Amino acid sequence: MLFSQPKQIAEGGNLSAASEATTAALTASPILGLLSVGARERLANAGAPVALERGALLCQRGDPGDAIFIVLEGEIEIRTSSPAGREVRFASFGPGAVVGEMAALDGGSRSTDMAAARRSRLWRIPRGPLVDALEAEPAAAVALVAELARRLRAANGALEAARVLDLGGRLARFLLEAAGARSLVPLTQTEIARRLGLSREKVNRKLNAWARDGSVTLGAAGVRVVRPESLADLAAGGERASSDL
């Protein structure tokens, strides 16, 4: 598949509004929100907007870690490919999230791909101003280290699930994590299958089986989790050696 590349855009009159949205996102961030007001404003003013169409790569594995990105709108997916060519998705981040910080901290190369799961707007902040801000205000640096550790554990969990769980376990785990407070996963079955690296047919069969036993309901809005306890058992490894694999 060919991907379009990110566009750094000069939005004219919208540039100020985007900068204000970035400052608000920085303020709400559990990490960079610990910076002083002045430091957050300097970071926002040092940045530039980026626009991505759905499927466009923000950066690829091996690219220089020369910036972080604030997600203003849309969704950014973190992923890589296995030696066999299978896509492995680690996580996705929506509005207000900070992405690309690991490589930006040490100035090394990117270890994964980052792509837009849907049309997205971001604010690119160069590495230099970020490092200056963290050196001047260590509380945010400590919080950033803690967040990176949390994300590493989540990535390890995703890899372990892909290794030991069958289709039902992986699908149940994904639904529980994606459902949120509304108990709704607002994705098509095709998109769910893509994110898990599975075929749509297998995902469709499993979801329909769960709909028949009342664990989920399927509708135009997506998949609604009705009995999370039954999915939790599958996500914990309660279903083994599925014939759907």
Structural notes for this entry:
- The protein is α+β, with helices and mostly antiparallel strands and 245 residues long.
- The chain has 2 domains: 7-161, Jelly Rolls; 166-235, Orthogonal Bundle (Arc Repressor Mutant, subunit A), CATH 1.10.10.
- The protein has 9 helices and 10 strands.
- It has helices at residues 14-28, 37-46, 101-106, 127-136, 138-164, 167-179, 189-196, 200-212, 228-235, and strands spanning 7-8, 48-52, 57-59, 67-81, 87-93, 98-99, 113-126, 184-185, 216-219, 222-225.
- A hairpin with a 5-residue loop joins strand 4 (67-81) and strand 5.
- Helix 1 (14-28) packs across helix 2.
Task: Tell me briefly what this model is.
By secondary structure, this protein is of the alpha+beta class.
